Amino acid sequence: MKILDVKDMSMSFGGLVAVNALSFSVNSGELIGLIGPNGSGKSTAINCITGYYTPKGQVLFKDRNIVGLKPHQISALGLTRTFQLTSLFARATVLDSVLTGMHLHTGENFWDAIAYSQSNNRKEIRLREKAVEILDFFGLAEDRDRPSNSISHFGRKRLGLAIALAARPEMILIDEVVSGLSGEEVSEMMEVIRKIRQTGVTILLVEHNMRVIMNLCDRVIVINFGSKIAEGTPADVSSNPQVQEAYLGTGVKLDA
Amino acid sequence: MRPGRLKFIKPAVLIVLLIVGVLIPFVTESTFIVHLLILSFVWAMMAGGYNLLMGYTGLLSLGHAAFYAIGAYTSVVLVKNLSIPWPLGMVCAGVTAGIIAFLMGFLVLRLRGVYFAMVTFGFAEIIRLIIENWESMTGGVYGIIKVPPMFSDVRFTYVFVMLLMVLVYFILYRIIHSHVGRAFIAIREDEDVAKSVGINVARYKTLSFVISAFIAGIAGSVMAHYFRYVYPDWAQFLKSADLLVYTVVGGSGSFIGPGLAATFFVLLPEFSRTVGHYQILIYGVILVLVIIFIPQGLEPIFRSLYNGLRNRMKRGRQAR
Amino acid sequence: MDFFLQQLANGIMMGSIYVLIAMGLVIILSMMDIVNFAHGQLAMLGAYITILIMNIYGASFFVSIIVGFLALGVIAYAIEKGIIRPTRKKKLPLLIAGIATVGLALVVEEIATMLFGRTSQSVFDPFGANPVSLGIIQLSLIRLLIPFFAAAVIVLLMFFLYRTKIGRALRAVSQDSEASALQGINVDDMLSIGFIISVGLAGVAGVFLAQMRPIDPYMGLIISLKGFAIIIVGGMMSLPGAITAAYLLGIGEVMVTAYVGANWADLFFFAAMVLVLLIRPTGIFGSYAR
Hints:
heterotrimer, A: 2 domains, 10 helices, 10 strands, 38% helix, B: mainly alpha, ABC transporter involved in vitamin B12 uptake, BtuC, 2 strands, 77% helix, 1% strand
């Protein structure tokens, strides 16, 4: 079933059109890639889908139009994202960051937070156990008590994923998660993404790194100047002349 | 580590401190010390609430004295004119301050932090002007005197204020170590990521603002019933600046830093005439120097010194 | 009717002074994204410098304007280098720089109190205090001159910002400091210049204020507050907004004082600010971009 359906989404800033009648859909369980040259509107598209901007057009998540909803409301519906440029919760520990990510699922309200009781204590313990499980999944368990800004770049990229996944989404938009990683780290990250996929979460991967796209994605959507210029399997897309022309001169090899 | 267990101090030590604290006024002859301690408790309480807003949530409020004054006047007016018991007046003080914070929050919390700072900066002065001019209710420039006290014996007042402070800090502790506290910190660190995990940033900012205003309101009413008077200058900007100094120097975002700094700064001018005379100037200089050179405040520095010492002692014991 | 016109003239004059304050705040805000909470205190310094050189050294009004601007400029340079610049590099720059300027406000006010005393003082021989008849209204010369001065300052500033190389660099930095740096603009220097201009303008506002009424070391707070209210009403990053709002609120304040009561004048500013925040939070000329 279509979990995400973007219909004629457009977004301009002043006179500048960043996203232009973009339409695509994602089926439940898929791992889709979204690629395009720099400035093609990928990040803006993500911001529009997840409520940080309000675009024109429709964005249906699980058949519900989410345009106009705020980001925290969209997350509550089951759609989360990562951020390309962020220092995350820099001064919070790795464990606390993931605990924060579980905000929607603590089962506590404000008064529970204040009241000191056995059952609340147990809830908090269970929450921490779950958080450590998530950290384990991402190989961050050892760093759990370190401040987020003290772990490696690779660790922070994984932490961003961990936080987004702690919110128990049905679908996650991952924004350029391998930028700045070494070749080996990229391979490890690809494994992580595969592991995430195996848990049943639908993934939209915004990426520049063609190796990742080619190896991981069921389907690839190519955008340029804010609209879709091609769509298909990685093989289809890399041999598409329009796509090749869009990347011409950018130094990006499509069959990396 | 079980949640809820105090990390920085063993419960047994805390209980001993509490008992000692409660006994002090009954043991000492000096009413001056009791007076100073009451002041420290109230300001430590205010600093704790202010720290929740500024240190943990990252919102710079420059008009918190307004809530202090609002709380004070609310309680005094209700108790004097309607003869309600002062505990009820105190609760009303906090609630009134909280409601006003809630309404203000509507105006500015969905905008950028700089709006919040500017509006709160003006707010205290506006409240002061309103108090000065609303003579029928507030007695105008002359304030209100002959405010009914809390207890006839100042020692009971002391115990009450001390227990109140402990209660407030207990609640603050619980809040900070819950999902609410984590949400506050997330908002301070990165609002966008906070939103992406489902945190309603506007709502939590408002919550933080209301709680800190509530505490300030209660503190104001305590002071009003302790000093037995209240006047418009309680809302003046300098009082807000004091709070800022305590929090920044103590360590914004640390749990006990601001409270300890508040105590230190309340006691200091009493023991040094020079400091008392040049107090505002010194505070200003300290504020500038601290925020530039040690913006994290003193608590983290002391904590790492303490940890370093403990590690060295541990290693010493192991070596033997 | 005469009365109304008289008040209107007063309002325009007050607006002219507010314009200088507000433009300075907009410049700093749009270039550095910080608010100078000591702005009013620096204007107060300008007022006291005027009193100093006019009362003690017998300087003329015009000299005092120049000295006021220069002196505050030098002070601004020191502040920017010593206090603002170190805070820019930190995380949460607004919080930290804002707090630093709060500390600065306290220090400046206290030093002024120590140097000049707590009671208010006046210029012995204020410029143009004699009334001049302009048809139906009577205005002291100073009140007539200040709007012209302000207009001249605005024109000069606009010329500077739009027609000179440095001015264009300043505007570039306020729009996008990273892109400006990439184009070879020395962002640090531009920020210094912006800060100096901003505080210089505040100083000149102080010089004007000193001609009109007794001044005291505590006047800084209310000046800052009014400045903030004006830029919120006008749009925080917008110079046209600051100018419009300054005159709107200046005239409004005078009208409120004249027809309702002096006590309500300060509240008027706050009320205007609240109104704008309710209806159009970005201000008259503001936009959501930024």
